[in-house]
Amino acid sequence: MQIRQRPLPTEVIPKDTWVIIQQPSKQIRAITCEESEIVDGKHMIKANGYGFSGKPFPVSKIVKTAALNAVNGQ
Predict the structure, then answer these.
(1) Which domains does the chain have, with CATH numbers?
(2) What is the pTM of this model?
């Protein structure tokens, strides 16, 4: 299983990678990456799941990333 810590600021996150974030309410969510890009010098990610449909947020909110097949146990 390949689970990685927080990505580097310039690291592109592949589509369909599980992204684990911690919200201000301390809830932890696992969502899937749709797009990863650098906008105005900030690395932003767009993801799906738990109300994040296409909503961009900074990579700094990511706790860990995991390949989709690692979560499925393949």
Answers:
(1) 3-71 (2.30.30)
(2) 0.55
On whether the CB atoms of residues 69 and 61 are closer than 8 A, the answer is no
Q: How far apart are CA 72 and CA 16, in angstroms?
A: 13
- Three-state DSSP class for residue 9: coil
The tokens describing 48, both together, are 């799906």
| Local confidence pLDDT in tens for the 74 residues of the chain | 455 566 655 667 777 777 777 767 767 777 778 877 777 777 787 877 766 677 777 777 777 777 765 444 44
In angstroms, what CA-CA distances link 63 with 14, 16, 25, 40, 41?
16, 16, 14, 22, 20
Provide the β-strand partners of residue 43. Answer: 38
